[in-house]
Structures are given as structure tokens and as C-alpha cells.
Amino acid sequence: MTRFICRPRISIYCLRRILIVFCLGLAVLLSACSAATSSPAATSSPVLLSSTAAPASLPNEAGALPGEAEPQLPSTVVDYQGERITIDSIERIVSLNGDITEIIFALGMGEYVVGVDSSSTYPPERTKALPDIGYQRRLSAEGILALNPTLVIGDEAAGPPEVLTQIRAAGVPVALTADPPTLDSPTQKIQFVAQALGVPQRGERLAAQVNAEIARARDLAQRITSPPHVLFLYLRGTDVQQVAGSNTPIDAMIVAAGGLNAGAEAGIVEFKPLSPEVVIAAQPDVILVLEKGLESVGGIDGLLTIPGLGDTPAGKQRRIIALDDLYLLGMGPRTGQALADLAIAFYETPARGSQP
Ligand code: ZN
Asked: What's this model's pTM, rounded to 2 decimal places?
């Protein structure tokens, strides 16, 4: 697993790569991490990157600067359906989506949150301590209203719509932002949340920080000369096995990180069920999955029993990247960091047809 050619030009790669490899080694030693230990360690060099192994990233944060004004309320936002929402109090916030929760905390406003949905996993120690209102797409009004919120905030993924109508009917403002499957999403959501919470300047600062990281990751991606074909699989055991095509957040991430979305190349739009035909058409150099998804199929060995996958370049070389779902798909404040991780992994992946 040692192919570091450290020329000054690529020193950033080398540094990050060394950190990742170092931490991966550590993770193998410390936790009997099934994915990591089941890979043939020294023989080949599979690109295996997982959030637990990646270096702890510094969370983006934009708390109050000395002398900066307290939250300015009432505030007004225009939601994703063009509706104007006025917010009088942020004393008790319920957040409906993991990316929105992460943004609230990154804005330094986490102390006002009284409840979160089950996809809210970051920052871990803070979100774990909060009441869980259930899954973002299957919310219930009773659970949310029982927390006496003064603001319910989320993005367009939150639902079902009847539940949101019920909450509004109870007199609680429900502010939902757009969440497009593009790299404009972090900025849009950060600005929306910051505006709703009456701290627009903090929002501008956080968005600038996140965009600078995205730009740096794109610079890294530009150095990839032969882009690998990357197949993203959404897995929940054997019941749910889907491929990501075009018009998905992960498509935007793969392309920005310097890869080719093998699902989109195989003609898939949005998410479609995985089939042997798709695998054959896609011929990925690397398979990208969520950590929970990989776990749900029994690690890398289980993954490679999916018909056809073992015969692809990625399968033969056991080149699997597994990352945390909110980190990779959330389009939140850590988007630039996730992109950089992907770009480094893709840089190390020989594209099909090229010399390994
Ligand atoms: Zn979202």
C-alpha cells in the first residue's frame, strides 16, 4: 500500500493520503472493522476509504464574532414553494433533516434545537442527546408538536405534506428550503437557514468557508488524468439495491471529484434497481457505497456476491469506497471535505484499460 511519489507538486495528496492510510492502519488495529480487515492488506492496494478511517475533519463553524449582533428577529424567508414564512422566535427549533441540523450547529445555533429527525447524526455527541422525531420522510405531527416548537425547519425532502400542513395549522411556522442535487445546494441551504434564524452574516461566512473547500477539492480533482468509472450503490440488505444515475446528489459529487458516474453512463436517471445488465454495462473501476449499506450486505465479501459485481474491474481489485451517508450525500457544511476524500481516492484508482 505504498506508492507515494512525493514531488512538491502533489504534496497535498501525499500528505492527505498518508494520513488516510495511517488512520486506516490504526482503525484495523483498534477496531476489528469488518470491511477493513477482510481486505487483502499487503498484496494488492485496494482503495478503501471509510469515514471511520479518514482523518477527523475539522467541522466548519461560523459562530458569532465578537461584537456581532444577536439573532435579528422576526425574520422572513421564502420557502422552496415560493411561500413567505415569518419567524418570531427561534427559542425551540425542531429540525427535520440531517443536513439542516448540521447547518444549524455549524452556525453556532445548536443550543436552540429541541428535536431532530433520525438522519441527524452530526455533530454526533450533540444530536444523540436530542429527542428523535423519526425519519424525515415519515414524520408525525404529534411527536413534533409535543416538543412545543417555535420553529420547524427542514428541506424539501421532509414529509409527508399532510403532517407539515397539520403543524402549520397548529400555528407553528414550517420553513422548508430547496435542496437541489447540485453543488449549489450547500450555499442555498446555509443561506436559508441563517436567514430564518436571524443570523445572515454568519451564514455568509459559513457559505464562503464551505465554497472555498469545494473549490480546493475541485482543484485536486483537476489533476486526475484518467477518470475512474465509479458506480454508486444504495444498499439495504438484499431488499433494496439501487444504482445512482444522473440527476442525483451523488452524481454531482462523483463528477466534481474527478470521476465518471458509471450509472449515468449506463443510461440510468435518478435511482434505479440494480441488475446484472446494469453491472455489465457499467464496468466500474471503483464501487462507492454508504458504510451502513456495506454493513447491511455483510461487508466487501457480501457485496461481491451480488451477481456480476465480482467480475468488474472494481470487484476483481476489491476497490470499494465506503463513507458515512450524511457526510457523502448530505450536501452540508462538510461537502468540500467529502469531495476531497473522493478526489484523493479516485486519483489512486487506475481507470479501466489503463495500467494498474
Ligand atoms: Zn437534505
From this structure: 0.83
